[in-house]
Amino acid sequence: SAAQSLLMKLPRRRTTALAAIATTATAQMFPGMPGFPTEAKPIYRSAKLLECAVCKLATEEMWRQSEERRAAAPRQKLGEDELQDLAGEICDPDADAGEWITFLDIEQTERGAPLKIEKREWLGECRRECRTIQKACRAVYDEIREDLAETLYKQAASLTAEKLKSRVCQKWAGACPAKPVPKTYEHPDEYWMPADEEMYKMKKMQQMINAQAEKYGKQPVQFVDPMQSAMFGDDEDDEL
Hints:
Helix content: 40-55%
Strand content: 5-15%
Strand order of the largest sheet: 1-4
Distance between the termini: 39 Å
Number of helices: 9
Radius of gyration: 19 Å
Structural class: mainly alpha
Largest sheet: 2 strands, antiparallel
Number of strands: 4
């Protein structure tokens, strides 16, 4: 599976605390509690400034993954519904199709300098910068997913990745060209953190359990994540 293949890209890090959590995963499962944060907060201003760059990366991923799935499909034909599902997951770092986001790191050399996105070697933890890229991706993709899936279904033979990026990011979403970074803006940099293999397995287990919970109308669960307390961010980043 995609999840299993990604395990090969995880660094072999171990800590006593994480090992203890991994061995007692089922004991640390509990229903979602009101007011309990489950993911990091995006950096809203940076997300707005990154919409063009993220749109191009997301569209490249959409193209690459659709081609891979088409090549593996019977008679090399991919249905429009499958493309719709892919488009719905491409901006979600917690879904297999959106895990490309966790490899990315946002960088800025100095205050007022352009924001750049660098790709790291390993699958990463989805902290503030990861959620920032997710927010930028959703901002440009939420309104064009159906058109994108339809285009890939009907016109894939006459398209290239570059043509698709131009159509999606400039013509449809209007995300490109990129907005200039204000001279006074400084991105609150965050150390990029590679994912821990055991924590990754726990998160995948949680996703599978919650998918079944949603299907049968049950209450979702949340694994305790010891790193979450450092990931949520400050309210000062909430305003654009």
